[in-house]
Design brief:
This protein has 24 helices and 19 strands. It has 766 residues and is α+β, with helices and mostly antiparallel strands. The chain folds into 5 domains: 138 residues; 156 residues, Beta-Lactamase (2-Layer Sandwich), CATH 3.30.450.20; 53 residues; 141 residues, Histidine kinase-like ATPase, C-terminal domain (Heat Shock Protein 90); 200 residues, Ribonuclease H-like superfamily/Ribonuclease H (Nucleotidyltransferase, domain 5, 2-Layer Sandwich). Helix 8 runs antiparallel to helix 9 and helix 11 packs across helix 12. The longest helix has 55 residues.
């Protein structure tokens, strides 16, 4: 029975106790009295009845006030203390009971705070021991995650249901660039922890590759991998390699390794039969032999490379070759005919001979122009046949200088080096070439100092090796070009000409008579800092070295997000999209509009601060001054931003297969509901409201504002009144609420929804 109901019962009992004895006494007297006595009694009582009733009423009111005061001080105060104690035990250990109320309650509060302090000291000691024990494991995990983050190739790790449980920065950037339509607005929402890989790659291709890997494992293959080429929804071509994530089970008899024969199918998301078959005799070094145990495929690693541009360049080269063949065939025919005519008619008149000569010259010039245009167009793609990388020019020269000074003891100076120049080169081969030239100059011409200069012109970069005094001949340079690049004991099979040709560049010798210097100039292709790499560096500037795109616990989470949301599932097993809106006003039904949408995902009880949705919206109506003073969004900020008919579908895709969470969610959801018919976007998933959940957890607290809840739960509020900032705070509040709900028996989604609807705030409509 609730405390307020007990209070009402106590009040009724008090009223009966105050009026009951008088009524009972009067009834007993009247029952034994005669008619004359009753009349005399009535004549005596009736005039005095108003005064008696008034005195009784005043006594009743005084009793009620006293009872209510005692109730507030003892009953309500103790209930509030109980809620605070639960906070101290769970969500906010630093919270303390305020010693207020009567002396007995204050003494109880002080005792509770003393016990909490002792508990905190013990917990701190235990936590310190746990941190010490976990330090090594955490260091290894972070090292692996950091390694994955820095790989130049996109890497994605999935469990057997196709749920993503790890991805690195390169994969995130790749799929952001590949995103089409609404997904591109959400910053690559296709990829995220707990999301399905099948929203990116074709399901059938993944399934087929897994089956091939299983077959190879059963045969004891040393390399149970699969390679395939697939396309994204936007039409981009990807080259992927799949490798299994294996887990060893119980060890079988010697020489009897087993591989899981019927794994869970990624098509159905359900486990297969527990059947194992004996593998064929394994080769030396095979995976099965090394483990010597029954192996289970628990997931797979995908390395992704975007080959769309390479494919397009190959197609363009084919078209160019075809155009050169078809376009020059007629020109060659004209030239051949003109030459044959000239040869057959040696006595031809001068004017006629000049006309034939002009035909030959014009056709040759046209062919030359076509060839030059084609070579210029495909120069970069021809260079990429050998793997080159984009590097800063000054880094290459600095490395070459260190190598020359270390191996040749030749002093190096730097001259006029452009720090912003990027080159597309094979850095190791280029450093070898520079060192080789320096060694030849030192050995044959005894130069005492070498200067390195870096400059550019158009799409070419010039690396100059400058020395004073002795000059050489062009024939000497030609001879050096064909020699193997051997420096001291270091032997290389490459020649200088190999390195130059590998880059599609040139090298020449030049003298500066005025300065009494000479130099070799190496001409190399310039490179522009790729956009994806620029984004990646920006991210590193604003975050620590530890990546946040992984959660290895998801290996054990079968179908973690699920194709549908089962209300009977535990709150800890679900994925959430915590969101908030900023609007022009507080009346959605009277024309107010959304001007900002922000959201962050929660997967496996972690707030993923890098998997966010943050977008301003052009409301197409004027903003209200009172709103601008709160959220700080001005007309200039929303002008030119996407309208809601573009933003809301993108947000809908971001939230797919997750439970929605918001504070005072009825307000935000009303804006969405009013747009259902016009935009055709319906949010059908369950919605949890931290305002209602707070009333469930702490029904005796006076305030359920987001700031008040955050303060109770020990959460720092930063960035309030921006959609994304409020979403962050709401997400942290919700994560703190989950164990508090479990303490009062609410552990499933359905239980949380039912409890929310029983609160007073659930009646509020917008």
């Amino acid at each position: 029975m609730k405390a307020k109901f007990r209070f009402m019962v106590a009040a009724c009992v008090l009223g009966l106790l105050m009026t009951g004895p008088f009524g009972l006494t009067a009834a007993l007297l009247l029952a034994d009295a005669k008619d004359a006595e009753r009349a005399a009694f009535a004549e005596f009582l009736i005039p005095r009845l108003p005064l008696g009733g008034l005195m009784t009423l005043l006594g009743f009111i005084a009793g009620m006030i006293l009872l209510r005061s005692l109730f507030q001080q003892y009953v309500h105060g103790l209930l509030r203390m109980a809620e605070t104690l639960r906070l101290m035990l769970g969500a906010n250990r630093n919270f303390r009971v305020a010693p207020e109320g009567p002396p007995e309650v204050r003494e109880l509060a002080r005792a509770a705070n003393h016990l909490a302090q002792q508990r905190d000291e013990l917990l701190n000691d235990v936590e310190e021991q746990i941190r010490s024990a976990k330090a090594t494991v955490e260091e290894e995990k972070n090292r692996l995650a950091a390694l994955m983050s820095e790989l130049a190739m996109g890497v994605i790790v999935c469990n057997l249901d196709g749920r993503i449980l790890l991805y690195n920065s390169r994969a995130r950037l790749q799929f952001r660039a590949l995103a089409q339509g609404p997904t591109s607005m959400s910053g690559g929402a296709l990829i995220g922890l707990g999301r399905s890989i099948f929203s990116i790659l074709e399901r059938g291709q993944i399934t087929h590759s897994l089956e091939n890997i299983q077959q190879r494992l059963r045969k004891g293959s040393a390399e149970p991998t699969a390679n395939f080429i697939t396309s994204t929804r936007g039409g981009a071509l990807l080259r992927a390699q799949m490798a299994p994530v294996l887990r060893a089970g119980a060890t079988g008899a010697a020489g009897d390794p087993k591989i899981e024969d019927n794994p869970p199918s990624p098509l159905s998301g359900k486990g297969g039969d527990e059947v194992s078959s004996q593998a064929a005799p394994a080769q030396n070094g095979s995976t099965a032999t090394m483990l010597g145990a029954e192996l289970h495929v628990t997931g797979y690693v995908l390395t992704i490379e975007n080959i769309t541009r390479n494919f397009e360049r190959e197609a363009e080269r084919d078209q160019a070759l075809q155009a050169l063949t078809d376009g020059n065939r007629a020109a060659l025919g004209n030239i051949r005919a003109a030459v044959e005519t000239l040869l057959d008619s040696p006595e031809m008149e001068t004017d006629t001979r000049e006309r034939f000569t002009r035909v030959i010259a014009d056709e040759a010039a046209a062919m030359s122009s076509k060839l030059e245009a084609t070579m210029s167009r495909f120069a970069d793609s021809l260079k990429t046949r050998w793997p080159l990388e984009d590097v800063l020019g000054i880094d290459i020269l600095a490395a070459a200088a260190r190598r020359i000074e270390d191996r040749l003891q030749l002093p190096i100076k730097h001259e006029n080096q452009d720090a912003e120049l990027w080159m597309r080169v094979d850095s190791f081969a280029l450093i070898q070439a520079i060192t080789f030239l320096a060694s030849r100059l030192q050995d044959h011409y005894a130069i005492r100092e070498l200067r390195l200069r870096l400059s550019a012109e158009g799409r070419m970069v010039f690396v100059d090796l400058i020395w004073s005094g002795t000059t050489i001949s062009s024939e000497t340079l030609y001879t050096w070009e064909l020699e193997p690049m051997n420096v001291g004991a270091e032997i290389s099979p490459l020649t200088l000409r190999d390195v130059i040709d590998r880059h599609g560049g040139e090298i020449w010798y030049q003298r500066d008579k005025a300065a009494h210097t000479a130099f070799f100039r190496i001409v190399l292709p310039a490179a522009v800092m790729p956009e994806a790499q620029a984004i990646d560096q920006t991210q590193h500037l604003h975050s620590d070295s530890r990546p946040e795109y992984y959660d290895f616990d998801l290996f054990a989470a079968r179908d973690a997000a699920g194709s549908g949301i089962d209300p009977g599932r535990r709150l800890t097993d679900l994925a959430y999209s915590v969101f908030d809106t900023e609007t022009t006003g507080l009346q959605p039904s009277e024309g107010d509009e959304i001007i900002q949408l922000g959201a962050v995902r929660i997967v496996n009880n972690r707030l993923l601060r890098q998997e966010i949705f943050d977008q301003l919206v052009d409301p197409v109506i004027p903003l209200k001054a009172e709103g601008i003073s709160i959220h700080g969004i001005t007309e200039a900020m929303v002008n030119g931003q996407p309208k809601l008919d573009v933003v809301l579908p993108a947000f809908h895709e971001f939230c797919a297969e997750t439970v929605l969470v918001a504070h005072n969610a009825a307000f935000d959801m009303r804006f969405f509901q009013l747009k259902e018919n016009s935009l055709g976007v319906r949010f059908t998933q369950p919605v949890l409201d931290t305002l209602l959940l707070s009333a469930v957890i702490h029904p005796n607290q006076e305030s359920h504002r987001l700031e008040s809840i955050a303060e109770r739960l020990g959460i720092n509020v930063i960035g309030r009144h921006t959609a994304l900032g409020d979403a962050y705070v709401t997400g942290e509040v919700f994560l703190k609420m989950i164990p508090l709900l479990a303490d009062i028996g609410i552990v499933t989604l359905q239980q949380a929804l039912d409890a929310s609807q029983q609160t007073y705030f659930a009646r509020v409509k917008y």
